[in-house]
Each structure stands twice: as C-alpha cells, then as structure tokens.
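Researcher: Please predict.
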Amino acid sequence: MLCSKMTTTFWIFFFPFLLIKHKAISGRESSASVSSILIFGDSTADPGNNNYIYTPFKSDFSPYGRDFFNHSATGRFTNGRLANDFIAKYIGLKEMVPAYLDPSLTIDELISGVSFASAGSGFDPLTPSISNVIPLSDQLSHLKEYRQKVEAVVGEAKAKEVLSNALFLVSAGTNDFVVNYFTLPIRRRSYTIPRYIDFVSNGATQFLQELLDEGARRIGVVGLPPMGCLPLVITLFTNHPILDRGCNEKFSSVARDYNKILRKELDALQVRVRSSGARIAYLDAYTPLEEMIIGHKYGFDVVNSGCCGTGMVEAAFLCNRNSPVCDDASKYVFWDSIHPTQKSYHLVFQSFRPALDYLVGN
C-alpha cells in the first residue's frame, strides 16, 4: 500500500515535467499546449490493436513492417510508419503512436498518446462486425477507460487537462463503402448511395460529438481517399482488371460526395462548439493521393497495384511471408491492395500540416 501511494505521489509531482520533456525529434519544440495525441478509426490509424483481438484482419507478420524501426511488423498495414506517426513527431510528442491495447505500455507512453483504432472498423456499426474488429463505440469506451487510468496516476484535474489539450484524430469511412455497402448486399437493400453517404456522415458527426462530450477540444477528421483508385477496388469492380488498371470513377465520385457532406457537417459542428474553444478541422487525404496516382506527382513508378504479391488483391493474411515483394516500396503508392506505403503516408501527412497547425495553435 505504501509503495502504491509513493508511486502515485511520484507521478503527480513529476507529471508536468513529462509533458515539458516531449520535443519533436525533428528539432522543433513541442507545441506547448499539446499534451497528447489520441487516435480513432480503421487500418489507416491502427498501429496494432488488432493484434490483441480475435480477427483475421491482422498484419503483425512480415512483410508488413519491412521498413519500420527494426524491420518489425507491429500491426500497421504498411511497410513502415502511418501518417499519424509522422503527425506525432511533427507536434513534438513521440516517434510513433502505440496501440492502446499493447499491455507493455508505460504510463509515459500512455499519457503522451495512443491509438484506439482498429483495422476494418467504420462509422456504420455493421462494418466492424464483418471482420470482428473494434467498433468506434468500443473505441470510445477505451477512451473512457484510458481517462480512468490517467486519473489513477495524476488525478482527475490533470487527466481532464490531458484530454482538453490533446490532439484527437479520426480516420474511418472507407470500409463502410468498399467492404460494407458495395461488397455486401445488406445496406444496399435499404439505402441508396446518397442516403448511405448521409448515414455514414451522420455517424461521423455523432462520434465527434461524443468525443467533445468526453472533453476533446482539438479534433482532426480525415476524409475519404479516392476509393476508385485502390488496387483492390480496381480488381474487384472493373470489367477487365488485368488490362484496365485505371481508377473506378464511380467509387471516387462517392468519396468526393461524402467528403463534401462531411466538410459541411464539420463546419456546422465548429460553429456550434466555437464558444467552448474547441477546434475542428478537415484533413484532406483525397487530393494528395489523387495527385500521386492520377497527377503522377512525386515520381511514383507504380500507382495502380501494391508492392506485396501481385498487388491486385493481397492484403492482411493474403500478404504474408510467402508473398513476393517489390524491391523498393518507395516507388509504389500502395503497399498492398488497399493501404498506402510509408512514403505515401508521409506525403499525405505533409498535406495535413496547415490544418494541424490550426488545431494545435501554431
């Protein structure tokens, strides 16, 4: 009991110094008011939470992570770092964002930021049930659990301060359309595309309100990518996918329509919460990826198939130790048939920087 009290006293006393010590490894001072980075969503934001649940949608094996630190497969669905890892470094917190479910996390790692995201999840409650992954409602429950863990160490007032000064990032929606609506028949029986866009965008807005209710005051929301350019979409929804590897305009137009609605919803939400000092920003992933793929910007050699295997269908367990892999992933926009390479994620992150500066007050 005495040891426990001494440990709690230690963390309460030294907690402010933990926040001060976080500096950008790039040499840039940490944004003084940013205490933590807290992330929600799908495989674009999951650094390995799916490692700890029963689901086939995992990537904790090679060749995933081939270009990550120590060449380790952490559960990130790419060859290296995700955009959120670059963001965490940019705002001066850490080199990479760990998975919340990782049992080896230290209190310092927990306080400075984690990801609750789960590959395969989405704003539609039906979507995560398809792959048996963590729904956003449970990710929110994990946030509440996270707050309790922080409170136990630094007290209620400091825990509240951590959340109010944290950068929240939300990245989801692609699975709702590609996996759920267009691949399975259930939602298509009840929703037209415009109605499903409204349904998903309303789910996103509701989730953001729940984050605000939990104390979030800086939230960045990532829009959909050009979904018709995902190699898997080209393969599954093109008449001659071997000969014609061009983007599927139908899917990309849905992404654009959704992003337009989402931006309006975010603007309206920003107006409603302005008096509280909250800041909400749209993070555009569509434009930089379109520039890489269609605009042939940044000099990629391969834009319509992934580095792993044939690059047309492989993802998760289909991209595995027995899969042939390209020699240089930096020449590819995509690592597997769905997910960008580390280089692509870095370019997407760079496009986020103006919005990030707004959120963190730079």
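Model: Residues 2-25+33-360 form a domain with the Rossmann fold fold (CATH 3.40.50.1110).
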